[in-house]
Amino acid sequence: MPEFDDRDFLLSVAEAADAATMPLFRRQIGVDNKLDEGFDPVTEADRAAERAIRQTIRNAYPQDAILGEEYGADGSGARRWVIDPIDGTRLFISGVPLWGTLVGLIENGRAVAGIMSQPFTGERYLAGPWGAELVRNSYATALNVRQTRRIEDAVMFSTSPRHFTGDVRDRFEALEERTRLTRFGTDCYGFCMLAAGHADLVVERDLKPYDIVALIPIIERAGGIVTNWEGGRMEEGGHLVAAATQELHDAALEILAG
């Protein structure tokens, strides 16, 4: 199977998802809770976007497998598309435009292409063999991480400090105390800010494949590093450290190891 290099297809997937999400953003829509205890929201926007993405993929690549957050696994092809129709549903239902649609592609166990679409701001961050770029108003700009090397100079993003508990919380707080600035609540948008050179670190716990597969090639093609807390690959999820430079990545892993 030839290497995937269809940049235009990624953009067409984003268009299909955008058409499903934007009419429902900042509207009064129903919100369901996936959990018996706690709160994990899902809306018709999530479901409609995933259906649209799946159909777009099936039309173009019917032999490929698909894994989506809302509708699970489908197919057994050598290539696997991984979908999070709205990463940051809490942000979506709160009217905050830091959510995004994530669609990534795995070949031979590696994430090789992906897109994050934020239609309200008109931004599409995407990557593949051609590189990493931001497309806005039909204009493409190359993505490059910045060259921050000291934790003390780093800007770090994470979804929520509540995700870190017990001794893991102590280790995360030790890292946070060393950074210049830490901000929470950015979800997938924070990863793209890392790739675009506006931040230096992203640290998360318990990510699922659909949370990260699309973002791995965006960061790596921009020159960054994405691994789990043991330094391994993140295609199957887990605890994550994404960094702009090897020095930052090494330092963050050392602090998180305790």
From TrEMBL:
Q: Which InterPro entries does the entry link to?
A: His_9_proposed, Inositol_monoP_metal-BS, Inositol_monoP_superfamily, Inositol_monophosphatase-like
Cofactor(s) the protein needs: Mg(2+)
What's the Enzyme Commission number for this chain?
3.1.3.15
Q: Which CDD domains match?
A: Bacterial_IMPase_like_1
Write down the Pfam families for this protein, in alphabetical order: Inositol_P (PF00459)
Q: Does the keyword Hydrolase apply?
A: yes
Q: In which pathway does it act?
A: Amino-acid biosynthesis; L-histidine biosynthesis; L-histidine from 5-phospho-alpha-D-ribose 1-diphosphate: step 8/9
Reactions catalysed, semicolon-separated, are: L-histidinol phosphate + H2O = L-histidinol + phosphate
User: What terms describe the molecular function in GO for this protein?
Assistant: histidinol-phosphatase activity; metal ion binding
Name a single GO biological process.
Answer: L-histidine biosynthetic process
Binding positions for Mg(2+) per the UniProt entry: 69, 84, 86-87, 211
Q: Which PROSITE patterns match?
A: IMP_1 (PS00629)
From what superkingdom does this record's organism come?
Bacteria
Could you list this entry's UniProt keywords, alphabetically sorted: Amino-acid biosynthesis, Histidine biosynthesis, Hydrolase, Magnesium, Metal-binding
Family to which the UniProt record says this protein belongs: Belongs to the inositol monophosphatase superfamily.
PANTHER family with a match to the protein in the record: 3'(2'),5'-BISPHOSPHATE NUCLEOTIDASE, PHOSPHATASE
The name under which this protein is listed is Histidinol-phosphatase
